[in-house]
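User: Show me a protein chain along with its predicted structure.
Assistant: Here is one chain, sequence first, then structure tokens.
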Amino acid sequence: MKKKSVYAILVLTTLMASCKKSFIDRPSLDGTTLTNFYNTAEEVRGLTSTLYGLPWSGFENRAMDAIGDVMGGNIYSGGNDDPPFTNFSFAATSVRIADTWKVFYKIGGWTSEYVKALEQKKSMGGNASFIDPAIAECHFFRGVVYFYIARIWGDAPIVTDPGETALTGNFNIPRYFQKDVMRFALEELQKAEAGLPESDVPGRLTKYSAKGMMAKLYLYNKDYANAKIKSQEVIASNKYRLFDNYQGLFNSSANNNNIESLFSIQHQLTGNPWGSGNQKNPDRGPANLQTAEASMWEMYIPSMDILKAYEFGDLRRKGSIMEHGWTYPAWKPKNTNSTYNAFMANGYKYDTLQPVGDGGQKNTTRSNIAKYVVGPGAGFGGEAVLGMNSGINTMILRYADVLLIYAEATLGTNASTSDATALAALNAVRKRANLAEKTSFNIDDILHERRVEFAFEGDFWFDIQRQGYAKAKSIIEAQNRGTPDLPVYVTFSQNRMHLPIPAGEILQDPALALDPVAYY
């Protein structure tokens, strides 16, 4: 990604200060601004580059883990904010829920105003050759956030003109039916598909980013025919492939925007990294990897249930989880303990037998998450880390997902399938994991594959949810959500299929507490 232009940073600052209600966040874009800016491709791309990183931080940092993997049964977490997502006792006052709402409606508001401004600039004679692709980028981001909104909250507001809403002062914005929110998201992605380029520099969106996200949305809606069409279009483009090293996808920013990534949240570790850096390193990294450069407090660790999910020999286990015997020779962390330093002299070791303090690592499940842990810092054999921050991107849509969407869409409502093209897609993912090919598969096979392929990537809860309440209940209630010493099995009820709207939002907009209405 190119560095943001001065104007893009100015707009971003204005946006961050302009919020009266989180779902009508908007910039101040007047006629003078439109005259003076958006005159070059660099200025326009600088504007839309603001959508790729910083505004995602409130969701990406922790809320993504709590919703996607704590709720999904892949992550065990202590503290105060996350255990309610383990036992489904979350309340409308949850900080994770509020943070997620703010992020998605902020991005929705920004993109709405960006589109409005860019369309106006084009009507004033602006160059459509670079304005139209930027508008398509905005539609992609707006489609993605409303896809999340529909899955997380179900019935929810849709706001397409936050500026006008703020000016009128009418904040009685209703919730719309989930199917309408999902349709709105799809229409946005369709606009993105129509306007995005076939290719661009690594990290920027393309037409195939939109096709892949549409395939995911169609799959969620059980529209298997269209999910198959869109995923096949991505496959047939030959623009993507599985990255050879699964572990390498997640442990180094050198592999940012790789051949497998269709859409990633972009991170930078320059200047002040707060908001622009990836903060998963400390939340996942083991305590015995902490150094003077890298913070590590292992807030999120693998659950007992995910530890049982991997097939023998699955390479994704080592790429996703640190357990006894896990090593990374390049990392050479040091601290004030000479015994520790001698133990780590030949590289980092994950050891549950060595005493804690001397290099040993013991937590509740005797494991740590390896994904998005980039190590102890540049001075200790890793890459640059600044306390909580690293420069690795967070992948939201990977080619592996497209392959598994195609396989599942081909399966459709059938009990099982041995379709050759579907098997080729599924087995490509399994081959990278060093697993035997399947000769047929059913929906449980696909769910298993998706779980271990995308563990700790914030996705498994949505895979459970889209199975419907009865199946979701059976999956969740079979999971050990506790520890080896204190197993926990929860009772799951239908009113927990979606999260509550934040209490603070209902206080400002009582219409959110009323029954949903139709948008279309």
